[in-house]
Amino acid sequence: MLIFYVVFFFLILRFTVTLFNFISNPKLTAASRTYDHLVSILIPARNEEERIITLLQSLKDQNYQNIEVIILDDDSTDNTFDVCYNFCRSDSRFNVIRGDELPENWLGKNFACHQLALQAKGKYLLFLDADEIVKDGLINNTLHRMKIGKLTLLSLFANQIMASAGERLVVPLMHFLLLNTLPLRLVRLSDKPAFSAASGQFMMFDAANYHKHLWHAQVKDKVVEDIEIMKLIKAYRYKTESLLANGYLFCRMYRGYSEALDGFSKNLLAGFGNNIAGLLCYLLLVMAGPVFIAIYLNTGLLSFALTLIILSRIMISFASGQNVFLNIFLHPLQMVSFIILSVISVKKHVTRKVNWKGRTIST
Fold first, then answer.
1. Which domains are delineated in the chain?
2. pTM
3. pLDDT exceeds cutoff 70 at 219
């Protein structure tokens, strides 16, 4: 019966976290005033010729004008540099540079971000990924959060665009894991590094603080650099916050099932602190728990467990701007995908090799 109590405790705990996130509504909201600080928008780009123009055009069209946009071509093997160069010719606020050769013991994205920061002149540094779309209000609203919270770092979790069935089986797992396991408001309210969550898709820094500490240099060999930076900043007792983008930032991370599996698997285990036992325990409680309840308990308790799971998916879907009915319907297949992701992630960790965008990364 001990297993029964553990399974139900974990289920209720996760539901409680989800309910807290739903009620506390940790989303970016509209600012009560306008700002005009120079914001350096920094975009590392490796083999992004097919995606990056959409981001650049959205930055050009959005309503916050005092920006400089610097794109760093990170040794691309496609036409990323030429595509960006041709775009930049039409707007003096945009510039593209070529990155230096990757030094030993650095990961590619971390070194690209480090180089970009050294080129920036803004009062705030905003790191974006090349596969995103920004909307009006994003920059001013995030500046307002930085100001009122006296933040060193603000990170946003973008609304995810999913255009294929395969993406819908994997991509929603990001918000599921986030909002089902971490009370997001505690990233700001607690100074404990354990309460850390961040997304490299949107990282806004106070520039003076960044140049003082060179955060990407401090995590130069970390695969999940966003969370590691968040932990570092909290360890220094600086203030941080992570929020849901609330329709101000969109991203299509992957195209298709296999690409989504490959992309998420490089970060999944690292998100569990590279603790294989911790990941396996989570899998057993989340996956095997409902099966155990179905086999050994009565119908009433099974209905209670399923109700908690369904309500959790409803709240997470609403909070993240995703399709409620699809996430409920696809939940069993998403959990199967989570198992597959976990196996791939553990395998990559054991072999200590991750391949991403033509580079082999030692983990």
1. 2-23+258-351 (no CATH), 26-255 (3.90.550.10)
2. 0.92
3. yes
